[in-house]
Amino acid sequence: MQHGQKWLKFKKDGYCGSVSIRTSSGIKFDSDPEYNDKHIHDAVLEMDPEYTYVKVIHEGFKGALKSVASIALGSDAAQNQDTLDNAILEGLAHQRIFREANSGAIVQFGYNLEEV
């Protein structure tokens, strides 16, 4: 499925937010105009060069949130990497989901594009 199709599926599933897809030709990013999440996408994709997608969901998340970590990311890229590196040590890489503390958005990421 192409990036544009993934964005349309994201919207069809009732989500508001943003999506990044990494392919061999680069990273494609789409966002609803009211959200400025590029720094979140950049930080997560920097964690692992094998991650193929990042979804930042501001509205429409339908999952359970009891055990989801809350992580604050700001505009400082180096600080974001330190914050995520520490979270990885605490198990974030296995969960592949967190709540961004400043916006309340749910961030999902991973290797399998079928999850988008």
- The end-to-end distance, rounded to whole angstroms, is 10 Å
Strand content: 25-35%
Assembly category? single chain
Structural class of the helix and strand makeup? alpha+beta
- Total beta-strand segments: 6
Give an account of the 3D structure.
With 116 residues, the chain is α+β, with helices and mostly antiparallel strands. The chain has helices spanning 3-12, 38-47, 77-89, 92-95, and strands spanning 16-23, 26-31, 53-59, 69-71, 97-100, 106-110. Strands 2-1-3-6-5-4 form a 6-stranded mixed sheet, sandwiched between helices. A hairpin with a 5-residue loop joins strand 5 (97-100) and strand 6 (106-110). The mean pLDDT is 89.
Short summary:
The chain is an alpha+beta fold and 116 residues long.
List keywords for this structure.
single chain, 116 residues, alpha+beta, 6-stranded mixed beta sheet, 4 helices
SSE order and pairing:
Elements: H1 3-12, E1 16-23, E2 26-31, H2 38-47, E3 53-59, E4 69-71, H3 77-89, H4 92-95, E5 97-100, E6 106-110
Parallel strand pairs: 4-5
Antiparallel strand pairs: 1-2, 1-3, 3-6, 5-6
